[in-house]
User: What shape does this take?
Amino acid sequence: MKTISLKQSALATLAAATTLALGFCSPILPAQAQAGPSPERGKQLYESRCVACHSVDANRVGPAHQGVFGRKAGSAPDYAYSTALASSRIVWTRANLLAWLAGPENLIPGQAMNYSLGDAKERDDVVAYLASLPAAKVAR
Ligand code: HEC
Assistant: This one.
């Protein structure tokens, strides 16, 4: 009997500790889940942070972004990419775009985009916006 109650109280302590630990973490997780990536906010960020070098449908200092989500890196027609990016064999998945925006040079050493976004929420929003762009037009 005594052993069982000891075990039970040990379990109760463990459960309490787990609840406490989760309780400490939970303010961070639900806050992010609730906010969620916002393509609308991403569009605004894109227009303030990216259009200095990029546009959705034309190559500028950087390549055109229409259809970039899910596209092979370095494949916008008629854009002269760095050798590093052109030969990277990366596909622009959400994860790769997030990594690219966090630190292009860490993802693809030798690349030529001298810009990064330090804020994780901003990266999430900008990538949500890129993902919302329609696929590239067939005729360019
Ligand atoms: C200072 C100019 C500059 C700014 C600002 C900039 N970029 Fe770039 N970006 C480039 C250049 C140059 C390249 C091509 C890099 C290469 O060839 O290595 C590039 C490439 C890219 C690529 C790869 C596209 C492909 O076709 O493979 C993505 C994605 C990208 N940029 C996203 C962004 C986003 C999103 C922003 C805004 C948060 C941004 N860039 C801001 C200059 C810039």
